[in-house]
Amino acid sequence: MHRLIASAVVLFVSLGSVRAQDGFKPLFNGKDLTGWVNVNCAPSTWFVKDNMIITTGKPTGYLRTERMYENFILEFEWFHAPQPKGSVGNSGLFVWGDPIPAMGTGYTRSIEVQVLVNLLYKDKKGNATATSHGDLFSIWGASCKPDRPHPGGSQRCLPSENVCKGEYEWNHYRVTATNGALKLAVNGKEVSGVTESNPRKGFLALESEGSECRFKNIQIKELPSTNPKPAEVCDADKGFQCLFTGLDLAGWKATDQQKAHWKMGDGVLSYNGKGVGQSARGLWTEKSFADFELICDFKTSFGLNLRGDGLVTLAGTNKGWNRAVVRVKGDHFSIMINGKVTIDNMRMAGLPATGPIALLCRDEPQQFRNVFIRALKAGE
Q: Do residues 210 and 69 both lie within one domain?
């Protein structure tokens, strides 16, 4: 018996050595989330248990790698545990994504590798338009060309056959990325692919979308670069931190009166427009900030209080979501709305050196999401 156990240990070590010699490296150490960044989810959304990365699915968001990848072979296993059984289990792998979400959404611009169970969409002719077993498609400003034309004309490659297992079963994905082309093998069978992807270098991410999903044995083998152009590379990580948990008002000062009018749900902070007085119409951060750059997605015009004693008004130009970028350095500030500079390095006399930030609303409903902040470094 002891001889058999020893042989098994030798075999395991040998297989591990062969794997390492193939150039594969673990993306997940099996113990904690070292090497990963929780972008826009609550601290409880992503956790490690029994050598698995697990997402609760709430709120919508993603967990990304600390660094970018270009060409590679990625292998991992996934397991959906929807509650109740038989309900939709939704998640995904984002390839070549940005470090923070696209405007008005919890997701990143990227190519998505679908991780899904218990869902199938068909058009009026009975053709599948989205499946649960291996779709590849572009999202939120990314682009790609599917290997097979989609029945609806979208940038989505449907799998050639269904070799995926269902809920509460482990599936294996092998994603090969080379020069803007992605090929997906499900449980050992290549079933879908896209080419001409843009971007084609960026972060990798696991998706949280509504239900529990588990990931394990995440391994990557990097391949030689094919020298993408700057326009084909995702945004750099500048160190932005999300000020929302996506589930509650943690991190914000909120009285019972304010909680009656301000609600956080699935990454969106909503104000009902019925608060009486400025205290009810405003929400303040618990932390104070010095020099900073703030990103904020919003629906209608609102006020932003800078460091507790400096009020500016931000007005959107889109009917839906708008994105404001506010930069505060010393007693000067700049504002950009939807990519256009509206205020450039204006001085605000008497602005405190540090202080909290407040979202101040009018007597009308308002929504916010993707509120990110980073401290400015010396010389920026």
A: yes
